[in-house]
């Protein structure tokens, strides 16, 4: 029998009772990480909080990294869906500049509304086995942004569009993640500065 790779959740169950158990495990893990930080949370803590045996927990998640991976991937899916909704309404370059600014606000708002998202992201950065999650998420956002630029007919070669999308999405993520560790007033100034800079550069670079 093939074993699950380290830090990968085991195959998700299909039976309703088992699915509910997995969701309970993830909910408890989320609460514990938000309360203590990921480093202080043990698998035994998650099992106890979820009301399952440690053996049952390991049936679904071989280690804590697998739990964090699942939480991170869910968080990334939520963010990607949000960006897709915003970018799907873009019809022209000025609209793309406005959408880029809205993405900044909503991305930052997600961290504010769900503070545990910060802890989960920090946990993925601290675990070598999980760092690829962030790279995969960034690649998905880059492809999404690049696709919108090409759809609205940005007048540039495909290579330049791809390079710009890569730079823009990485800078956006960096700006937001810097802001989430700053006091609210300073974070607001940082984000407003980035939004102004990003919109101005996009219009100057690709405007007719």
UniProtKB/TrEMBL annotation:
Residues 42-61 bind DNA. InterPro entries: Homeodomain-like_sf (IPR009057), HTH-type_TetR-like_transc_reg (IPR050109), HTH_TetR (IPR001647), TetR_C_22 (IPR041674). The keyword GTP-binding does not apply. Residues 1-20 are annotated as: Disordered. The keyword Oxidoreductase does not apply. Keywords: DNA-binding. Pfam families: TetR_C_22, TetR_N. Residues 19-79 form the HTH tetR-type domain. This is TetR family transcriptional regulator. It comes from Devosia nitrariae.
